[in-house]
Amino acid sequence: WMIDFGKTVPLPPPQTLDHRTPWAEGNREDGYLWGLDNLIQIFGDMLHDTNPPSP
């Protein structure tokens, strides 16, 4: 499991999470989607770098 729901608790209002904000002490963000966005960008860059230019 990626999330242990047994250990989760509701956020106190008005705090929200977007999962794209990088983690910083006290912000409760996990950065999951931020990391996934970066991973997708890395793979896209690698794919672009491996395609030879057209003659």
UniProtKB/TrEMBL annotation:
Which InterPro entries has this protein been placed in? Answer: IPK, IPK_sf
MF (Gene Ontology): kinase activity
Matching SUPFAM superfamilies = SAICAR synthase-like
The answer to whether keyword Kinase applies is yes
Q: Which UniProt keywords apply?
A: Kinase, Transferase
Family that this chain belongs to: Belongs to the inositol phosphokinase (IPK) family.
Protein name per the record: Kinase
